[in-house]
Prior knowledge:
Blueprint: E1 14-19, H1 24-34, E2 40-44, H2 49-58, E3 66-70, E4 85-87, H3 94-107, E5 112-116, H4 118-124, H5 127-143, E6 148-153, H6 160-166, E7 171-173, H7 176-207, H8 218-250, H9 269-288
Parallel strand pairs: 1-6, 1-7, 2-3, 2-5, 3-4, 5-6
Amino acid sequence: MDIDIEKEFKRNSILLSIFESQFYNQSVTSLLNSLKDKKICYVTMSKTADHMIKRFNLNNIKTDSIFFIDGVSCALNKCSTRENVISISSPYAFTELSIAINEILKTKEFDLLVFDSLSNLKVYARESISIKFTRDLITKIRAKQDKAVLTCLQNDAQSNLIMQSSMYVDKVLTFPAYYDELRKKNMTITGTVFALLIAASALLFTSNTNQITGFVTAAAISSHSEQIKLFPFLILGGAIAAAILLYKRMSPYIDSKIDKIEPKKIKNKAKLRNSYKNKLDRWLNKKNI
């Protein structure tokens, strides 16, 4: 089961998708998987574009039709040099971010824009600035008659930013059935890990005793006792393994706050705009060859 929102675009242009924190990684992957036939501009304010590309590729999501606006990598001194990435100087650089998105919308080449995520805007700007940026973004997308998916964490659903944003989008989406299924799968995985562990422990516990015939030696008794002592550690090891597996499946998608890095002062907006436009044009021309 995937988060399939394509049908929502038949009647709506701008959607706000609310994802549960513990399943954020899987939610974003599922969302992109349902949109894999679309040409997408993906704005990432939580992970680097390189990280997202690796994650999507591991989940069989082709990224050759995705163009990224990366708000994170330069702040980590890892500015992406990929052809399909525009890196802004800092996640606090809202002017740069706005210019980059404007250039994307001007092309009319993309099926939709995915903004990941509004929850990050709460971290990188005062609430009033975040609300204004989001309102302006939605207005621009609507004016261009484009489509967009904005995402946020369920924990932030009652925040002023998300409540205000929900007034401007066409529809707010939640996915209770999807998360119920994920929880069932995780319970099944946990149960399977423990079942295999108990089976392996039982096999280890009985293997030597089955070989003893006629009499019991002191060495056999000692070995048997050692196996009994090891049993709790095997159970504990299995529990730890199951916990690690579930954590990797359920870990929140949002990084911890990046230390504030002042955005570059834009001396010439036209020059910056042209640099973004030129990179975007090179990628689009290459795609259309």
